[in-house]
Each structure stands twice: as C-alpha cells, then as structure tokens.
C-alpha cells in the first residue's frame, strides 16, 4: 500500500484529504510542467540551464476544484489539463449550498459575488487555495484564510482597461442623456433635445482612487479632451497633465464628472453620501463602478431628485442578484424601485470587467497561479501570504523533494524546522512572513521514500505548524 499522507493541515486534522492523495512519482500525460512558467534562466546565475523537473506531489486527478460564477473557459482548460476534478457553476451559490460543497474541495474559484466569510471558510477543511477571478478580494476573509494556511490569488489588472473603457462610455452617455433617449425611442417616442446635453471636451473628470483603473481612465479621458483631477490617499505620479488634489472635497468641488475607483474598505464605506453630494458642482454627474458600499444610494436618489446631480451611472450595488435572470427589486435593496425610476441614470449589472478579453486573460492568470501553487508551492501574486518562490528542481534531481511549511510567525520556529531537515542537504530555502503567518519553502536533496513521511510528520508536530506539504 503506498504511503498517503502528503498534505496535512495540522490544525484541522486533515486525515480525510491525506487519505485521498496517494504518492506517485510518474507524471500523467496530462500533467503540465510548472517549470515552463519561468524563463529557463530563472534564478540560475551563471549555471547552465537544465530542464526543470515536474513536481508531482500526488495524483492531480485527486485535486477537487469548485468553480463558481461562470469563471472563464481558459481556466477550465488549464485545470482539465492538470487532470483536476472540476465542478463548474454559472452562478454563485446560496450560503448553505456553498458550505456543503466547500467542505470537499481543495481549490475554489470565485468572482466578486461569492462571500467567503470566516463562517464559510471554517467548514473548508480541505481547502488549499482560493482563486478570485477578478480584481477585488473584499469578498474573502483574507486574514482568516492566511491563518488557516489558505492562499488567495486574484488578477490585479486584467480587467482594468475594460472598466476604464466602460466609464468613458458612461461619461459621454450621461453628458448626452443617451440612456433616456434610447429608451424613449425603444418605446416609440421621438424626443430630440439639446437642452442640458454637453460635449465632454474641456470638462473636468474627477477620479477618486488613482490605481490601476483610475490611472488608465486618466489617459483615456485626456485623449478625449477632458481635464483630469484625482484624489488618492497616497501620493501617486500623475499621467499626462492630470493633477492630484489634496482632499476629496477639493476634487468634488472642481469636477463636472466624479468617478469612483477605490477598493471596498471600512474607510470607503459611504465615501459619497449627502455631505459629499452637496459638495459636488450643481448639475454634475457621478459614476460608481467600484463597490456598492462606496455610495450611499438613498442619498444619491435624493440628490438626483433635487436636480443637484444631473446624472449617474452605477455598475455595483450593496446587494447584487446571484444569477442572470434574477430580479433587481426592493426585495434586494429597499430603494431599488426609486432608483430605477430616475431620469438619466445608467444602471448596469456589474459588467465593468465583463469583456471577452478581460475574462479570458483572468482565467489564464489566476488559473496558472493556482496550478503553480498547488503543484510547486509558489506564492508569487498571493494577496494574503508572503510571496515566495524557488527555482524549479532540475530534471536530474529525481530524489529531491520540496517542503512547504506554513506556520505561525514566532521566534525559534526556523531553528526547529532546520533541526528536522538537518540529516539532509537543504539545496535551497526561502522564508518570509506577512503579519502572523510565515511561509517556508525548502528543496532537499537525496530523500528516500520512507524519509519523506518522517519529514512531513516532524514538521507537522511542531506547535507553530499551520500546514505542511511535501512535494516531489
Ligand atoms: N465594476 C467592476 O466590474 C470592477 C470593479 N472593480 C473595483 O474597482 C476597485 C479599484 O480597482 P483598481 O484600480 O484595480 O484598484 P487599485 O488598488 O489599483 O487602486 C485603488 C486606489 O484607491 C486608492 N484608495 C484607497 N482608499 C482610498 C480612499 N479612501 N480615498 C481615495 N483613494 C483611495 C488606493 O490608494 C489606490 O491607489 C477594485 O477594488 C474593485 O472593487 C475592479 C474591477 C472591475
Ligand atoms: O474585478 C472585480 O473586482 C470586479 O468587480 C469584477 O467582478 P466580476 O468578475 O464581474 O464578478
């Protein structure tokens, strides 16, 4: 009978998982070489390049992955190529079903809708990694995940351009009241007006949050002849002739259009409410494609009814329907029908990042990151773990193993780890910490099959252990 305990989550007693993963040193024909993600010279200095060995920690067919929210086909292709068992859903799941399913899987892939709270994650005893196939990670309890040895990856900028282009379209559409004119004609009404319709040339765009999306938008807006001002909590280099202003109030007072591109944080909740709407220019416009919590929508409704705000475009809402075809009514958000009844408001169903280009790029980016993490333990790009990598094990190094040890960041742990590894030659090692959690990778040479188990059990027995994985 082959030895089985290759992955163990010490804190949670992961016997069930361990029993499903059997050791095998012969890669299947579907196995995709993780080494191919890095240039051949990666980290090698002047040594001649040698073929990287595929780490094969276990039968990859045993890895179970739950993909929700219509994650792109590109990711499915990557996981299928690995032989992972993929369960795919087009929408998010109600919490009780999510809890049921998450108990079983090693990987979960979500987008912005699925909330992975501590309550849900507490049930995820087998979970190694979460892939957010989007930019935002506010839907995941990142700290809880890290403390339980669960890495989280996202795609930090693959849909930024799509959001920026949508916002440009909305600036013009609001200035020309396109939504209303189109709706009227769809209803058979001809209504040719120029009153309160404007060119955007020469107008000021105020960007709140000058990160990946805000700065991309800045370039597009200037190309359309707009003046750009931005407010951010950190100093950021201006692109083109855009100018950073010192306060949100200053930005609101100067801008004809205000657009929000901040993450969901406690500090950005209701960032725009009654006070801020009153600071905006009379007849100005508000665009929110960040998160629904950033704007106080009842206050916006009042400001639009009073005419202070001449138009708005919203792509995100505090509560969003779970699936296409679901209704956007007062059952979901108390003010939904009031909002829908306003003039010159563009309401879109969270489609800022929903383009073919963005979704296929995100599928590849997050899919690859997950495979690298599962197969090689590489955390580059993780949002809640220290970022560590080691150059791949060479093909000739057949008896080398890679040890991954996620642990509490306490004094003396590395001494204990090295005592366990001291009978072997540690070829290379890296260790880094992020808050309370530390991550160690070590490649060890000439380890016999029976010694792998000893190393695994030795590391697992340390009090600081969160998760030990032995890959070979
Ligand atoms: N509607 C959609 O489909 C999409 C929405 N998003 C949302 O857009 C957000 C922004 O995305 P990125 O530009 O990629 O993020 P980013 O992290 O590159 O930039 C965010 C910027 O906001 C700034 N910031 C943080 N708190 C602030 C505050 N209180 N006031 C002013 N600035 C503040 C940060 O310093 C940073 O420069 C994401 O977090 C996500 O929630 C992202 C992609 C698609
Ligand atoms: O990337 C983000 O943060 C987004 O908001 C896009 O979310 P989605 O992938 O459309 O659920």
Model description:
This protein is an alpha/beta fold. It has 15 helices and 17 strands. It has helices at 15-20, 73-82, 95-102, 118-121, 142-147, 160-175, 178-186, 212-223, 248-254, 274-279, 297-305, 336-340, 356-376, 413-421, 449-460; strands spanning 7-8, 64-67, 85-88, 107-110, 129-132, 151-153, 204-208, 227-231, 243-244, 257-260, 284-288, 309-314, 345-347, 401-408, 425-434, 437-445, 465-471. The strands form three sheets. The chain has a seven-stranded parallel beta sheet with strand order 9-8-7-10-11-12-13, with helices on both faces. The chain has a five-stranded antiparallel beta sheet with strand order 1-17-14-16-15. The radius of gyration is 26 Å and the shape is elongated. The chain starts with 6 loop residues before the first strand and ends with a strand. The site of 2-oxo-3-(phosphonooxy)propanoic acid has 11 residues, from loops.
Q: What are the main properties of this structure?
A:
15 helices, phosphoglycerate dehydrogenase, binds 2-oxo-3-(phosphonooxy)propanoic acid, serine biosynthesis, alpha/beta, phosphoglycerate dehydrogenase activity, 17 strands, 472 residues, disordered N terminus, 7-stranded parallel sheet, binds 1,4-dihydronicotinamide adenine dinucleotide, elongated
């Amino acid at each position: 009978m082959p030895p089985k305990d290759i992955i163990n989550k010490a804190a949670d007693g992961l016997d069930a998982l361990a029993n499903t993963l059997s050791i095998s040193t012969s890669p299947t024909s579907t196995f995709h070489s993780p080494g191919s993600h890095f240039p051949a010279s990666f980290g090698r200095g002047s040594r001649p390049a040698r073929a990287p060995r595929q780490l094969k920690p276990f039968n990859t067919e045993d890895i179970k992955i739950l993909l929700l929210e219509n994650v792109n086909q590109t990711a499915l292709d990557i996981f299928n190529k690995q032989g992972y068992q993929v369960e795919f859903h087009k929408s998010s799941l109600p919490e009780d079903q999510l809890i049921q399913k998450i108990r079983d899987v090693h990987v979960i892939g979500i987008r912005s809708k699925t909330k992975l709270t501590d309550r849900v994650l507490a049930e995820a005893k087998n979970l190694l990694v979460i892939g957010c196939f989007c930019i935002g990670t506010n839907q995941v309890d990142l700290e809880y995940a890290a403390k339980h040895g669960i890495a989280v990856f996202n795609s930090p900028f693959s849909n930024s351009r799509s959001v920026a282009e949508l916002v440009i379209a909305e600036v013009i559409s609001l200035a020309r009241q396109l939504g209303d004119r189109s709706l009227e004609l769809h209803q058979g009404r001809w209504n040719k007006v120029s009153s309160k319709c404007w060119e955007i040339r020469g107008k000021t765009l105020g960007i709140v949050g000058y990160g990946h999306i805000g700065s991309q938008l800045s370039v597009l807006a200037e190309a359309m002849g707009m003046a750009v001002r931005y407010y951010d909590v950190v100093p950021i280099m201006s692109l083109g002739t855009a100018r950073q202003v010192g306060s949100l109030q200053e930005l609101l007072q100067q801008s004809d259009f205000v657009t929000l591109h901040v993450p969901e944080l406690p500090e950005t909740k209701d960032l725009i409410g009654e006070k801020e709407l009153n600071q905006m220019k009379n007849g100005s416009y508000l665009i929110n494609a960040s998160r629904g919590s950033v704007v106080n929508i009842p206050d916006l409704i009042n400001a639009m009814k009073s005419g202070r705000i001449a138009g708005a475009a919203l792509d995100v809402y505090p509560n969003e329907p779970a699936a296409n075809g679901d209704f956007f009514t007062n059952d979901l958000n108390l003010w939904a029908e009031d909002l829908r009844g306003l003039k010159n408001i563009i309401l879109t169903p969270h489609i800022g990042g929903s383009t073919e280009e963005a979704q296929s790029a995100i599928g590849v980016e997050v899919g690859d990151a997950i495979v690298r993490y599962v197969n090689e333990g590489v955390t580059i790009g993780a949002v809640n773990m220290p970022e560590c990598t080691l150059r791949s094990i060479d093909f000739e190094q057949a008896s080398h193993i890679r040890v991954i040890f996620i642990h509490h960041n306490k004094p003396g742990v590395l001494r204990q780890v090295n005592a366990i590894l001291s009978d072997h030659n540690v070829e290379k090692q890296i260790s880094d910490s992020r808050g309370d959690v530390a991550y160690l990778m070590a490649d060890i040479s000439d380890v016999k099959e029976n010694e792998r188990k000893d190393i695994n059990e030795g590391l697992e027995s340390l009090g600081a252990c969160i998760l030990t994985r032995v890959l070979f």
